[in-house]
Design brief:
Its EC number is 1.1.1.94. It is found in: Cytoplasm. Catalyzes the reduction of the glycolytic intermediate dihydroxyacetone phosphate (DHAP) to sn-glycerol 3-phosphate (G3P), the key precursor for phospholipid synthesis. With about 325 residues, the protein is an alpha/beta fold. The protein has 2 domains: about 180 residues, NAD(P)-binding Rossmann-like Domain (Rossmann fold); about 140 residues, Orthogonal Bundle (N-(1-d-carboxylethyl)-l-norvaline Dehydrogenase, domain 2), CATH 1.10.1040. The chain has 15 helices and 8 strands. Strands 3-2-1-4-5-6-7-8 form an 8-stranded mixed beta sheet, sandwiched between helices. Helix 5 links the parallel strand 5 and strand 6. Helix 8 runs antiparallel to helix 9, helix 8 crosses helix 13 and helix 13 packs across helix 14. The longest helix is centred in the middle third of the chain and has 24 residues. The protein binds nicotinamide-adenine-dinucleotide and SN-glycerol-3-phosphate.
Amino acid sequence: MTQKIAVLGAGSWGSVLANLLVKNGNDVVNWTNMEEQAKELNENHTNRAYMPDLTYDDRLIATTDLKMAAQDADAILFVVPTQVMRLVAQQLVDVLKNSKQKPIIIHASKGLELNTHKRLSQVLSEEIPAEYRSSMVVLSGPSHAEDVAKDDLTLVTAASSNINAARKVQSLFMSEHFRVYTNDDIVGVEMGAALKNVIAIGAGALHGLGYGDDAKAALITRGLAEISRLGVAFGAKPLTFMGLSGVGDLIVTATSEHSRNWRAGNELGQGMSLKEVTNTMGMVIEGVPSTKAAYELAKQKKIEMPITDAIYDVLYNDKNIKTVINGLMEREGKAE
Ligand SMILES: NC(=O)c1ccc[n+]([C@@H]2O[C@H](COP(=O)([O-])OP(=O)(O)OC[C@H]3O[C@@H](n4cnc5c(N)ncnc54)[C@H](O)[C@@H]3O)[C@@H](O)[C@H]2O)c1
Ligand SMILES: O=P(O)(O)OC[C@H](O)CO
């Protein structure tokens, strides 16, 4: 049955997921806060600032009118940067109150809120009416908009404490190119999604500095160990980090040139300043705020996260990358 779906956020991931949902036979409205972008998507079926090579399905509608996008929708998918998620959720409250039906709430963003250190399902739960909380779903896993846009093969997970809601999301997104598993560990899925961005900055930096494959494999492996340690301290299931939203997403983000986090690290490794990197990327680099949030969470819980500490020192204390890498190698010997 055709579903009415609102996708909030028309950057690379939001617009590409909206396009996928249209191709799956749904009525989809993609909400953006930029008038020019809505016009371009509606008239030219392009979104050149984010996906320069993609022509979108001409059935995809874009709007800056949140009510038009989300009122009476069957599903509402948030795909905005982490630090504006709360703001967008607040704008949605009145629309939800005036809707004739109760949509399923999904988010596909990856990060931790600065200051509160909260996961995105927690942020949404605080802002939207209570009756939506139990059926919230998180869509996550190794997935770059560039690959999904060209119908390459992508496998992700839909996590919820409500299995029926997860299954509903699974069936909305599944296609011959896009496979969705279900998962009941929202904490693990969201922690894996946010923390892999931190390690990906480190992996990009190693590349930018000219280190080889051994160093990159070691960083990913030891990065996974500290992601799991922090996640488990907050109630995640250890095995979740062995799945698509854990090691799967870590591998793609820490090795792909599509990754904004990896590219940011690579440019830092090549000697650019953080300001230059963020000013030229033109898209969100979630690992930058998530490094700060993860660093502070780790201190709060007394969890050892040496790689996160090192990236934090580079991003927030202006430490030299080569020096922090040397520091990691010079730590006392440990058991694995
Ligand atoms: N790009 C990917 O391949 C990909 C894949 C999986 C997950 N994600 C996650 O999805 C989230 C969004 O990433 P993206 O790649 O689409 O980012 P992006 O930088 O490409 O686009 C972000 C969009 O958010 C919009 N935005 C910013 N502030 C806003 C506000 N106050 N109100 C409404 N819209 C606002 C911007 O205008 C822009 O269109 C991130 O958390 C990212 O980690 C991205
Ligand atoms: O481009 P990045 O670094 O934000 O990563 C995008 C996705 O999270 C990869 O799964």
